Amino acid sequence: MIWINLTPSVLLLMIYGCFIYNHARKPLLQIYPAIILSYLVLFPSINYIFSNIEAVNYFPHFQWLFFFCFHIPFLTALHYSAGHKNAIPENIEKLNFNLSIKLLLLLSLILFIFCFTAFQYDLFFRRIGHLNLVSYTNKTPYLLLYIYRGAIDTSFFVIAFLIFTLSKVDSRVTFFKSYFILLLAYITIFIPFYIINSRLEVIILLFSLICSQTKFYDVITKRKIRFALFVLIFIILHTLLRELVTEDTNRINLNSVLEFSTDTLNLISVRLDSMAILYRVYNNGFNFFTVDLSGIFHSFYFYCDFFFNQSAYHSIKNSLVTSPSVFIANNFLYSKEIDFPKSMVLDFFLTFGLLGLLFASLIYGYIAGLIHRNLLSSNNFSFAFILSLYLLPQILQFEKEGLTFFTNIIKWSPFIICIYILRPRLGNY
Q1: C-alpha span between 2 and 378 (Å, rounded)
Q2: How far apart are CA 249 and CA 132, in angstroms?
Q3: Which helix or strand (DSSP H or E) is residue 174 part of?
Q4: Where are the alpha helices (DSSP H) in 67-154?
Q5: Mean pLDDT over all residues of the chain?
Q6: pLDDT at residue 428 greater than cutoff 60
Q7: CA gap 157, 163 in Å, rounded
Q8: CA of residue 421 relative to chain centroid, distance
Q9: 3-state SS of 401-429?
Q10: Cys-Cys link to 58, which of 140, 279, 357, 359 (CB 3.0-4.6 A)?
């Protein structure tokens, strides 16, 4: 019976495999579907095989539902939005761009403020000191906290931007070495920060560079198997680091190789199974033919309270229930659960039901296609290119809430606009 229930998963694996194979030299159209496949099909299937929870019996129902209402519309929108002719170029043409010292100073200042805030207010080791994270955050001045968070959420964008900038300009141009040193500083600070505090953000950075940088793509395509093994080993090691060191949960049996392997695989699948929460809320009465705006209103009030009611803002913030999906899920589960696996489709699905699921498939497919076109057809630092370079790592972080993806565009728009205004410009050097 279990293998019959895996029928939609097997079909989706075949469909996604054909889609990825037929979009050669279009890395975003290969990587992004693979990420979605992992969160919505592959790891939920593995978790279904291992799990003995009664609610997981809804697995085949939701796989068929997502098959027709998300996966097929998503792949269709992605294919047609990306176009047919755009593919990653064989070489990057170097042009006579001037580098701005103002942009150099601005990014250096942002990095300095991040380091000062992170170490002055104990916000660098976020996962290790998670119990005190809220209190430390509340003690941080708002301006410093805004720049600190902005530096984190735009760090991959800045790294990719600096790499692209250095690949487009001649090494003889003024400030080239200074920009290179700044790039090394960002990498040196943020790579350890993400390894310590986040789950898979370092992999997201690599994916972003592959999708936007010709040299990275060429290197990886020549070493596909090695890169796949690296990703797999990194995920396993990061899981072990979290389970055995930073959190010490005692959920991995070290006395048997077989149990060690199965425990590790099971923990990875549970951590990345963003469908699991749907089985539970459906089991408790969730109806995907209805619309529930309570989560949207809750998040709206949360953002408004920042300006008009600080006590209410801090109350919601301290509860950690700040997204529509978490708010609605807790209403159905009659309990407070925060750190369950999420995905960008949860907010839409739990709020708007089937219509939200269909809308999410079309909007994410369309946005990803536009990002692909803007990144690979741009020969200069246009606003469309810079915005797409920012959106690239954001959309690849599929485990985040859907509302966060859109609110971050507004929240960090000053960073994006400043970089666009101070961008490299054509001229003599």
Answers
A1: 48
A2: 18
A3: none
A4: 72-82, 101-120, 133-139, 142-153
A5: 84
A6: no
A7: 10
A8: 26
A9: CHHHHHHHHHHCHHHHHHHHHCCCEECCC
A10: 279
- Residues ≥6 apart with Cβ < 8 Å to 128: 196, 246
Smallest Cα–Cα separation from 75: which of 23, 38, 39, 24?
Answer: 23
The pair of three-digit structure tokens given for residue 257, joined into one six-digit string: 């190789």
Tell me which residue of 241, 190, 220, 174 sits closest to 393, measured CA to CA.
Answer: 190
Distance, in Å, from the CA atom of 135 to the CA atom of 79, rounded to the nearest integer, reads 46
Instruction: Tell me which residue of 286, 203, 280, 186 sits closest to 237, measured CA to CA.
Output: 203
At 136, the amino acid letter reads Y
Q: What is the CA radius of gyration of the chain?
A: 22
For residue 279, give the H/E element and its range. Answer: helix 276-283
Contact criterion met (CB below 8 Å) for 130 and 359: no
How far is residue 330's CA from residue 270's CA, in Å, rounded to a whole number? Answer: 19
Nearest to 42 by CA among 24, 66, 76: 66
| Residue tagged 């609610």 (tokens) | 55
Burial of 229 (0-12, 13-18, 19+ CB in 10 A): exposed
358 Ramachandran zone, left/alpha/beta (phi>0; psi -120 to 50)? alpha
* Rounded Cα–Cα distance for residues 257 and 253 (Å): 8
Three-state secondary-structure class, residue 97: strand
Measured from the Cβ of residue 303, the count of other Cβ atoms closer than 10 Å reads: 15
What is the token pair recorded at 46?
């593995």
What is the reported pLDDT for 135?
A: 74
Q: Report the pLDDT averaged over residues 233-249.
A: 68
d(CA 60, CA 353) in angstroms, rounded, equals 18
CA distance 316 to 310: 10
In the prediction, which pLDDT does 127 show?
60
pLDDT digits (tens, 9 = 90+) for 278-335: 988 998 889 999 999 898 888 888 888 777 777 777 777 777 788 888 888 888 887 7
